[in-house]
Amino acid sequence: MTNTTLTTSTATDPTPGDLDLRALFEPRSIALIGATDKSPWSLNTFQNIRGSNFGGSLYLVNRSTDVVHGERTFRSLSELPEVVDLVFVMVPTTAVLPTLQEAVSCGVRAAVILTSGFGETGPEGKAIEDEIVRFSRSSGLTVLGPNGNGFINASAGITPYGLPIGRPLITGSVGFVLQSGALASSVLQFAQSRNVGVSFLTAMGNESMMSVTDVMNYLVDDDATSVIALFLESVRDPDEFRRVARRALEAGKPVVALKIGRSALGARAALAHTGALVGDNAVIDAAFEQMGVVRVRSLEDLILTAGLMAGLGGGLPGPRLGVVTPSGGASEIIADRAEDEGLVLPTFGADTTRELQAIVPAFATVQNPLDVTGYVVIDRTLMRRSLEVVARDPEVDFAVLLSELPRVPGNDPELTVTAYGDSARSVRSTAVPTVVLSTVLTDVTEYGREVARRTNFPHVVGGIEHGISAIANAVRWEEVRRRAAGADDAPEPRPSVFDSEPSGMWTEYDAGRFLASHGVPVVPTERVTTVTEAVAAADALGYPVVVKASADGLGHKSDIGGVKLNLRTPEEVSEAARSVFDALSERTTAPVALLVQPHRSQDGLEMLVGVVRDPVWGLTLAVGLGGVWVEILDDAAIRVLPVGRRDIVRAIESLRGTALLRGARGRAPVDVEALALVVERIAAVAHGLGDRLQALEINPLSVTGGECEALDALITWTLPNPGTENTL
To answer: Are 252 and 227 in contact (CB under 8 A)?
Structure first.
């Protein structure tokens, strides 16, 4: 929850190898270099530090002016009476590096660079920025920026920040890390307006030396921060982001992220269905879900979700909610939004119904959500007494109370405080967690904050629309956290040995042989180059058979009439083989061949299993219904590799077409565990290929009960790197 008392942050020792940011974010002395009355940035930073009751030393450095902001200045760092912990640099672009060199020579360990004109301006500015990074790394100087606003360590009362900070600053336990300085003020303003207390806030600037993940790592170890909220334009180091997100999950600290860029921008393998299914946005969703990062779609949801989870101290135990409101209309809106978000409103049990009927007016209808009616104006105890009963229902995981903080003093302010105090005690003592939700999204007034402080009233989530989203996010995070505690590890990648580096595209025959050699069940296949060989292969395999076209660069064979099914006699095979050879000769001058396979019955369900390379997150698995279904349903579950079997089972069961897996329309049900085992094997093969692989697709993978068999496959290789070893 929020409070207005500034307390000193204490961080545990960072993980070995991590950047230690305590010198930067917890300084006991600060020097503003380039301080001047001519700059609003300088004045803002000075006033912010002074206004936070910073307990350390603050020095102003200006080479040509004796007094700035009404205080004495120093000509250089060497004139200061002590070595400062942090320098806040506001000098012109060309003077930044000499300033940092002087700071290091004086023993300074950390710097914030407010100045712009570096990598964000083009190659020339980037060259200057790179020189600063090289110097800083070699000298042990920790740098935030350039082109950044600084930071607000609200819990410690340290606020070297270049934009105005509203006062009083409401402190709490949400740490904000933003890749946009322009949004920082709006985020801070909205958080304060909804009584979401801030422990920390920074805008990263150019991330020249320090990245979002470095600050996340610091906040995982920060005792004052319980929730980490991110605005992300990009994830620069996915592996490091994954590692830090896992640290946060293990520490019980939710990470909530607004990641922009939901359009499909990444290049995909054009000949694979998988490429059409795995868009950039789907991969981001999958990656964040696997890491336990709550992804939101708006700044409002970012702040409100973080505020709720800070108030709860984590997530919510399950999707079943019991709702108490004073409004029938609000009840209906909540019911609709709960369904949107996958939340469940269980029917109250007989005991709950009986107890509620003894509390609410006779004209009220006892159901979930519960509308206690406008009678609350007469009986102020009606809501809290009903809440206590609803929260005891064994089918309810958590309760929701629709209530608002007062906006202005009423006729009897003390009576208001007493009523809110009684409600606060009820909410905090319910049998399951209770979330307080307001009807609409409005600012919490100073009077409302004062009542909340005096009564220890729980955090109020703003508005039904965003509030239900925040509640669902808290439920999903808790589910991921529980799963992570018992998650199975992904299998070891399956290494592959090649006589020479693979390249181009491997169509069905070569791809099938490769997969079969790695333990993936593949339909028996004979490759032939003449009609006579086709008939001989069919005789050996046994009828009925399938004849398919095979040629380099050939994608979807059915598009050219290159697939002939259910051939039952040598004559049918001979005719089909000639037809396919003719179709191939019209379309390619490359060597052509036919594949002959046993014809499988239509009893099995066709699945698609594919892996494509995402430009950010790397190899990404897609599982969906295959064959004609992939075109019709456009339905796939996405996971970033590596992935374990339990997660694959959940992915399969999340498909919209999951009814077919359960045996719809007379089909035999699919053994999902057996299917997941094969998918896990395919994923391990793909993961073992590493950077060699661009795309791998099996479509269809025929599944009958617990039997799986790849009927067609395609592998696209990346261009080989000179000097790569042949063995992974």
So the answer is: no
